[in-house]
Amino acid sequence: MAEMGLDPRSLSPAIRVDVSTDHSSGVDVFGTPDAFVRNLQREFARNAERYRLMKWAGQAMPGITVHPPGSGIMHTINMERLSQVVVRESRDGIAWIHPDLMIGTDSHTPMINALGILAWGVGGLEAEGALFGVPVTLRIPEVVGVRLTGRPRPGVLATDVALTVTALLRAQDVTGAFVEFFGPGVSALSVGERGAIANMAPEYGASTGYFPIDEATLSYLRLVGRSADHVAAVETYAKENGLWFDPQAEPVYTAVIDLALDTIEPSAAGPRRPQDRFALGTTRDCFEPPLDGAVGAGLTDGAVAIAAITSCTNTSDQRMLLAAGLLARRARKSGLRPPPWVKTSLAPGSPTAENLLRRAGLLEDLEAVGFAIVGYGCTTCIGNSGPLTPAVAEMIGKPGFRPVAVLSGNRNFPGRVHPDLEYGFLCSPPAVIAFALAGTVAIDITADPLGTDGDGAPIRLADLWPSEQDIDAALAAMATADFAQAYGKAALNPLWASLEAPAGDLFPWDPASTYLRRPPFVQASIAAPTTAPSEPLLVLGDDMTTDHISPAGHIRADSEAGHWLVARGANPRDLNVYASRRGNFEVMVRGAFQNRLVRNLLAPEAPPGWTIHAPTGEMVTLTEAAERHARSGTPLAIVAGERYGMGSSRDWAAKAVALLGVRSILAVSFERIHRTNLIGMGILPLLLPPGTTPETLALIPGDRIDVPLGLSGLAPRVAWPVRLLRADGRVEALATVAAVETSLEVTLLRHGGLIPHVLGSFRSHEEAA
Description:
The protein is an alpha/beta fold. The protein is built from 26 helices and 29 strands. The chain has a seven-stranded mixed sheet with strand order 21-24-25-26-29-28-27. Strands 9-8-7-10 form a four-stranded parallel sheet. A four-stranded parallel sheet has the order 16-15-17-18. Helix 19 (560-566) packs antiparallel against helix 20 (585-591), helix 20 (585-591) packs across helix 22 (652-659) and helix 22 (652-659) packs across helix 23 (672-680).
């Protein structure tokens, strides 16, 4: 703004903004009562530069509230501290009351739907536009109703329900739909249980997983400390406006799916996708070839390398957290502990969890079996799992050794939890502890012994599993005062309070920084249209997740990003994680498509992050190929299969691709948030014709894709004719459709993306004035 001759103070958020620092907490220290404090100290040491930027932003821009490290995960903070359900406010002297609504820059934003608040996740780019006055628009969605009946049987937890719902709805294909839960079974679920189900909306492909307002909502609001007056206003408003839950109501939906809660069994999902649910005791049946016994050093094929109670998905439900604590208590009394190769951790969604566990007398029991609190953040769930234990690390890559992660998170894509772990299983918090005690997934966890007690007698899961009455008794220890106390303590974090931040309207960029570099796409100019055919940079298969496109885990010293950092003085033994380097475009673009499971069909023999430079036939890195094509003025394209961009909402999966020079992506289907991120970066998303896949196209080096990039005729869902220019001279027509849903998205693409649109709008307003 300043470089354009405009007042930077005019770029101020138009809406309330809450920022959480939950993606930088790592598990360096585990298994000790002081793990949280030591991990937090390391977090600040690594990320102080980024945190100064955040602290500066909170001071320079009115309306931005930064919740400091150690405050918890954004979704849990929202549930416990920020949500109102019904908002009362004054605008221009007029009193208003209206439903609460929000957007969040994370795909798991729908967790707040558990309280009856309509919310959905958007990409960072879309949210940046909303901050500065660009409307959030979406095509009116299909609304799918899920009729719940019955109630979960004893021993069935919210995770089991969430995984069952995920498998059911993925099979029904609710991609992009708003899902609403209705029917008498809703009343059988607490808000914490609803939260676990709503949180998984991106895993079942929906935009939301909405639960209505009812007595459970009011009880939760009272629990977390909302005033009696506010709770009464929520009830009155919901009832007067037809928003109050009626268990007998039969709304009209696009489609209705039935689920009887009393048919659900203890479950797990994996080993590569969250929708692949199975009965809890059958993990060993998920491997092909089958698990194959001992591999040395006391380890077996299928050894549990990481056991993590992590993420907001399950730790925000007090009953599941207490169930884990009660199981730990019984395991401790039986003398059970995880084998030394298992890395254990407990990272709740907020610091209120510690208060609850202390009141219930369960924190010491969890610590005794290795599950000490390591942080209040996403940790293992988003790849900040830290180093593996030495025993496992030494065996990585040995023939016949397939180590696994077991976590209570929401995603288990290969390499997400740790770059060396291809296999991951999702299950409830107490089941995570059970697998940790066993040290392997090569057993029937529901029937086989987990270990032996002091007398040599076998101990099974049934011996440890708490009753519903035990959980109810522990839950009675919860106190409303604990919520305000926990968050108040987190806000006064001395590490945050003592952190010095720059002052003034302009942030002082440090040219030598390896964390914060001014990105080249923050400009008002628009890339000139080109008529040149596009070169395919990558040809990819199905389920190319944002974890594959833009990783969040540990940066290896031998990676392209690692080489860049080490050459500029970074410590090769502690390069941090990609999630903490998002302020450095040089790192992020070099991290794109580095996941070891990425296979480029254009060059199947190429390692991840490499491709063929067609004009020379050389195999080069993606950044080298991008630089060569940029010099020749050649636009680039990517071809992909189904569900391109599924997973996290991270906008760097679009930013990095744009920086590589990609102007269009042709895919069988796109996940919703990533599609909008692509448009926000000025990348044209195109749907391949039915029946056409990357495999059937059979592109080879030298083939080109003639994509019209002038965009003058662009409209929502318009046919967009593409030509394949084969290396042998043949020309083939390809009848694609623009994956564009609204007129605003058309405008953004024509302007070259969101940022040029916003800056250009400010400049136009200033010139008009």
